[in-house]
Design goal:
Chain lengths: 364, 364
């Protein structure tokens, strides 16, 4: 029997229920800006050594919670574990991004793809179980995956890309192959997230990190359609609790209303979106997560507080005039930079918690 | 006395006047995908050797017009000539992007900035005069500059950037310094574009290539406000002809209505924007330019034609039911890739011209 949750503000905001303050967590909150993370990573020997070892993954997942009063934990892992389990051979060279030894570039490679045996991802599910135990009810744990399209970008390009030339060439020249990859990815991601939920994830997030590079029309057919398939297959309750699902499309602001209709409980927004305008459009149907520019964290603490307050004020008091609640989960609009001064994050957390309490008091 | 213009379709579309077909040109149409460009560049020795020599600049500007029935020429130059003239020391290392020897990173460096002597940019104005002469009225010539914000990004970062950490750190920590840079840039860009118009540019374009990386709110204050200042200072007629001004903010789709109100005649759009929706919002006030994903050009010619037709159909027949005209200039949503097969561009030009004539016939 898992420990009772001591801080459920994050889950409540996701489900558009009343909250005492605006909960916050930070994408990539367990990461290289923290000296203690770098120490653990050094012991693990490599990023994959860290990510595939449940004890290490538990240790680094909890590190930011020791420093900051964050309202959620997120599984320490990588968005590319699924294609790695498909046999594409993921590695992280020193100082570089991810790379696949066997990128998917032709019809034969596409035909060889299949939903991976979830046993190959056991280390992830074991980490979820271990983290839940270590959290002991402190805050909820978020599981995650890359979106079908974002995984396809890496699978075809074989690495990060500036122009997405290879994956878009396949998309425009051989849409049949692209749809086949995406269908397999959607089934894989759904199975992967459901297994994380079984292991104890209390919310799940789909990172459509590269949806925003697609053309209007192509985004709907090649990214959003497959995210929708994933969401439709998710187990949405566990032990009587609703498991919120967050969908975040970086650069997806133009498609907000379509994304908000994909079945997710929460839509993540980057900093280009006006949060107040987004709330007016879709806030009565989904909660919103975001959307501070992570570069704000390089400015002095008073500027960090000022910009955080501007984000909260843009959303406004979450309780509506009719007494119902809209949901806002504070976050950055992208992962926190490795160059962030850790003490600036303290200023952010303090500003979000205190100002959001003032907003609620003023809104009454 | 300059030669009379034989093809004014581009200027007419910019000014929302009747056209026989949808005019097109391609950002970076004189570039590395053309073998003849690479041959000239090899003779010039370097990119700056090419850009600073009016004879070479004229030669490469006209090259794409020999191959394709494009409806406009664009000055061959670089967006960073203005900060180079400020004394920051622009160079292009082999296989890399631009780099400044003296980036602007502190208060002393900002205080040392001033609007450059336009005589240092004489090579650009000489190129404009030379190209106009060589064009001999074939198609109009477009001059251009980077936007104040986009120039500031390079000036502070010292080179291209993944995260814009340095320039955004200054923006959030020392907005006073950033505003000072932007004011100087706006005055410089206005003087630069006016000198291009004096030399013979028949339209001008402001490339706000990095406006889309800014947060909502910051975009309006640090990018759009200074683009507006530039547009307000432009000479808008020459020899009795209106000089259209195009503003292109890559990633600016969310701010379309604000950008359309900046005083420009034409707003450039990238491929993430739904062209039909954009026309419905602002098409009666400005012409629109764009917006094919340049990666479409890697697909076979039939796919190129199909996607080009989809863009034209999204805009729809430019003549409205009341007989008035909206303006569409076909373009890519970003510069053409150096890896583009040149014969695919032929398919694009053919598809845009023939389908847009069909659209006009069907619309009657």
């Amino acid at each position: 029997m898992p420990a009772a949750l001591q801080n459920d503000q994050f889950l409540r905001a996701c489900l558009r229920q009343p909250t005492d303050h605006t909960p916050l967590w930070l994408m990539r909150q367990a990461g290289r800006y923290l000296p203690e993370y770098n120490a653990t990573r050094a012991r693990a020997g490599s990023f994959m050594g860290l990510a595939t070892n449940p004890a290490y993954a538990t240790e680094v997942t909890l590190q930011p919670l020791e420093r900051y009063a964050l309202d959620a934990a997120i599984l320490f892992s990588d968005i590319l574990t699924v294609p790695d389990a498909m046999g594409l051979g993921l590695s992280f060279a020193q100082g570089e991004g991810p790379r696949f030894a066997k990128p998917v570039r032709d019809e034969a490679a596409v035909n060889a793809l299949a939903v991976p045996d979830m046993d190959k991802l056991r280390y992830v599910f074991d980490a979820v179980t271990s983290i839940r135990k270590a959290l002991n009810g402190r805050v909820p744990l978020i599981g995650f995956s890359g979106s079908p399209w974002t995984l396809a970008c890496y699978m075809v390009e074989g690495a990060g890309s500036d122009d997405y030339r290879l994956v878009k060439s396949m998309l425009y020249a051989r849409p049949d192959l692209m749809h086949r990859i995406l269908a397999i990815n959607a089934d894989s991601v759904a199975a992967y997230l459901n297994a994380q939920i079984d292991a104890g994830a209390q919310a799940v997030m789909v990172f459509d990190s590269w949806g925003g590079v697609l053309a209007d029309g192509a985004f709907q057919r090649f990214s959003l359609e497959y995210t929708r398939r994933v969401v439709a297959k998710l187990q949405r309750t566990k032990d009587g609790q609703r498991i919120p699902c967050i969908v975040f499309t970086k650069g997806g602001g133009l498609w907000l209303e379509e994304i908000a209709a994909c079945g997710a409980d929460v839509v993540g927004l980057d900093w280009t979106v006006n949060l107040g305008a987004a709330r007016a459009k879709v806030g009565s149907r989904v909660a919103l997560q975001g959307n501070l520019d992570p570069n704000v964290l390089f400015a002095p603490p008073e500027a960090v507080a000022r910009e955080a307050i501007a984000v909260l004020d843009s959303f406004g008091p979450p309780q509506r005039a009719d007494g119902s609640w809209d949901g806002h989960v504070f976050n950055l609009g992208h992962g926190i930079s490795q160059f962030t001064p850790p003490e600036h994050v303290s200023a952010l957390v303090e500003a979000v918690h205190s100002h959001s309490r003032r907003l609620r008091a003023a809104g009454k």
